[in-house]
Amino acid sequence: MTALPLGPLQAEAPVEPDGAVANFLADTFALEAQLANAVGSAVTFLVAFVALYVLGRVVISPVVGRFLSSRDLDEHARKPLRKLTNFLIAFGALGVAFAFADYGNILTSIATVAAAATLAIGFALQDVLKNFVAGIFIYTDKPFRIGDWIEWDGYAGVVEDISLRVSRVRTFDNELLTVPNSQLTDGVIKNPVAKDQLRLKFLFGIGYDDDIDKATEIIVEEADDHPEILDDPAPSVRLTELGDSSVGLQSRIWIANPSRADFVKTRGEYVTAVKERFDEEDINIPYPNRTIGGGIELSNVDGIVEPTTGDD
Predict the structure, then answer these.
(1) Is pTM beyond 0.90 here?
(2) What is the C-alpha separation between 37 and 19, in angstroms, rounded?
């Protein structure tokens, strides 16, 4: 069997510096072509990323900020949107920098890994995503704003901050509550200060022998005399209850630009003034009482109680 002659093996083409930065490094620092290419790509990536990110923050961020201001959005809504804009600028700068540095294969690998990890991350972060979506609903629906006094699930306080995941509420005992947004969207939220006016109600109890018309007149007069109580809508009084020991007269008054402090202060001053007028006019505010009747029957007590004699 005759062996076939083998031709000479083709030698691999030598690696040459690729790009202006790699050529500069190879010529100036006498680096090997492969090392110069790696360092050149890294430098190109870093310079491109920093330059594009700074350019985006200088040019795009102010434009987005002016656009959000022109839409008359609240600060709590503009803040996360600005953060999202900066994230998108960084992400865009990262992608373009990868392209400039000729990191196409690396970018493809990262995309593949990210796609594979998305499912696992989605299962692991269900609660986080739920709160994130709830935060978006808070921004769009605006059930409350920063500075509002809200009540929910037995809690109450003033909203200090709203983010995409949690909201922070300062209670009236000066405690800071960090509340997942999903808790504020799944249930009922009471926002007493959402409107420009707030109606307050208070039930005054008077005795059955007292003059209802006179008591009603006093309640309305004290409301008219208080500077923080509105004349329009006018204060009103309704007989709403015939209790065991008192007749219930419910006062309904309105205050403007309500806050928790205004609500407590105004109601306290008003109730105090009515109580003092009741005392002056001898109108009784009865307290609940019970009268227990009946008797006690004792049996088989002959051996326990000794009869008394006249000598005692």
Answers:
(1) no
(2) 8
